[in-house]
Amino acid sequence: MASTTAPRRVIHPVHALFLACSLPLFLGAMLADWAYSSTQSVQWINFAAWLNAGALVFAGAALLWAAIDFLRADVRRDARSALYLLVLITTLVVGFITALVHGKDAWAAMPAGLTLSVITFLLALAAVWLGFSTLRAGVVR
């Protein structure tokens, strides 16, 4: 006896690309902040600022795609999709605050820059995990 559930929507490849590309950039920004806190070489904080800016571009595109997908009339909305959208919004807001902190002088950006980079990376990791686990085909046999 085979029990099946209604197939869930599958993540679009472009949405998956935007979502997945932000994670290594946020990781790189966090590692560059960590390298700056260890070495005090100003170039590391510049790397962190640029990596964070690139990650915000991809995360913003993923947020736009997720919001349009969430608001479509023909798509079933559930709590996990709403949580995914909320975590993605939070990632973008904290990432933007991180970008503002990195806009300060290198000495003034620490230790808040490193702390915010860690929080942003963890939020991005949660968003990627929720995005890929929520939006996958779910036919159970």
- For the secondary structure, the number of strands is 0
Q: Summarize the main sheet.
A: none
Q: Which of globular, elongated, flat, extended, rod-shaped describes the shape?
A: elongated
Task: Calculate the terminal CA-CA distance, rounded to whole Å.
Answer: 9 Å
Percent helix, as a range, is over 70%
Rounded mean pLDDT score:
86
Computed Rg: 18 Å
SSE ordering: HHHH
Which structural class do the helices and strands define?
mainly alpha
Given as residue ranges, the uncertain stretches (5+ residues, pLDDT < 50) are 137-141
What's the structural domain tally? 1
Total number of helices: 4
| DSSP strand content | under 5%
Transmembrane segments: 47-71, 83-101, 107-132
InterPro entries: DUF2231_TM
Keywords: Membrane, Transmembrane, Transmembrane helix
Domain DUF2231: 12-132
How would you portray this structure in words?
The chain has four helices and no strands. By secondary structure, the protein is mainly α. The protein has one domain (13-134). Helix 1 (13-39) runs antiparallel to helix 2 and helix 2 (42-71) packs antiparallel against helix 3. The longest helix is centred in the middle third of the chain and has 30 residues, at 42-71. The radius of gyration is 18 Å and the shape is elongated. 34% of the residues are buried.
What would a concise description of this structure say?
The protein has 141 residues and is an all-alpha fold.
